[in-house]
Here is the input.
Amino acid sequence: MPKKIRVVLAEDHAILRAGLKSLLTSEGSYEVVGEGRDGLDAIRVVEGTKPDLLLLDLSMPRMNGIGAIKEIKKSSPKTRILVLTVQRTEEYILEAFRSGADGYCLKDDSHNELMMAIESVLANKRYLSPGISEKVLQGYIEGRQTLKTTTSWDSLTQREREVLKLIGEGYKNKSIADYLCISPKTVEKHRANIMAKLDLHNASALTAYAIDKGLVDR
Here is the structure.
């Protein structure tokens, strides 16, 4: 009997996770060995299971998909990562690939397109959804895999973006410190750096910015 392909699902919507699990198991050759509702869960589950494939959303609570991809590629480099998201802007796509994603699929793609994406990344090929605009696709093909560095957003480090996301979700410094395993003083330093770089001066402004950047659901 052929060995099944081991898959982890990282998605904060339980109904969508259940749907993906049902779809994959119905194919017969896939086995869902773990699930997570955010980036931190994804890192933990992948570390414990070392799956062949991770299906990962980008917009999740606590740690987003971009941060998780970087950590997972360090701890489980053989795991192929397919992003499954609603985000279709150049910024997200290029940053996902730059972080280590192997494929990028949109949630409104068809069942056949999703399975094609999965088969491609498992065959060690890059995959980019046909729903991505020609302009973004052309930019990726030409090797333009670095983001523009002319905006305040681009000046934020990955850790600062993680802190900004948690601030936007309403977490206080102590909770942020616990989630990220850093000290409250370090969180305060990150918060100060974020405010200075973005020229924003209170939590409400930071929250609005995080929502505008797609870090937090509206």
In short: The CA atoms of residues 28 and 72 lie 26 Å apart.
